[in-house]
Amino acid sequence: MAAAQASAFIRALAQANPEPKPELEYRDAFTLLVAVVLSAQTTDVAVNKATATLFEAAPDAAAMARLGPEGIAPHIRRIGLWQAKAKNVAALAEQLLARHGGEVPREREALEALPGVGRKTANVVLNVAFGENAMAVDTHIFRLGNRTGLAPGDTPRAVEDALVKRCPPELLRDAHHWLILHGRYVCKARRPECWHCVAREFCNYPDKVAGPTSG
DNA sequence: ATCCCGAGGG
DNA sequence: CCCTCTGGAT
After folding, report:
1. What's one Pfam family the UniProt record gives for this protein (predicted)?
2. Do residues A193 and A186 make contact, with C-beta atoms less than 8 angstroms apart?
3. Please, which positions of strand C sit below 7 A from a protein CB?
4. Would you state the torsion angle of the CA atoms of residues A195, A196, A200, A205, taken in this order, to the nearest 10 degrees?
5. Which of A98, A129, A160 is the last residue of a domain?
6. Is A149 helix (H, G, I), strand (E, B) or coil?
7. A103 and A155 inside one domain
8. Range of the domain at A168
């Protein structure tokens, strides 16, 4: 897909969603970071429920560190991998205090050095919370990038690089939400619903699904 | 059965 | 590259 077509693809999503409602509701760096750390192999809805009570008990790194794994666990028992995540989040809060004055660092290296934080989580925080030139690639965006031709690549990193290169810079931040929501609800893994896709005319997917009964 | 906004370790 | 950690929705 040419660069111009990639821009048109993303602009079509933008026009359809002037005020995108993110699945994970947080834009503040600390709450977003914790929410994303909790989100592996779990639905966004479950994470939002868990974090609602968790952040009431511990709205910042200091409070979260005080809570500790045993204090965190009861809030997140309904989500997958909660035992490891309770430890990670507690350790994460402690390191934020010990090494970053209780704030979330803005540097990729510092972010990825935190327990439970890999490249994907770091990219979400860099992009969504800090507005940096980064793009997180999850399973949805990976699939969408390849299927549509928007950002092809055989590794998440390759898809990431293609997206950062092709997305208009001023749209990069919100594109994260647009793409992930589009991947979840329209360009789905099993039955992509091409018949009401707003970017259909810019998509290279060869077998565009015609209607609900054809998939 | 299969999937979900992964990271860490072998 | 592979595996494991884990629960809930569909």
Report:
1. HHH
2. yes
3. 1, 5-9
4. -50
5. A129
6. coil
7. no
8. 3-21+138-202
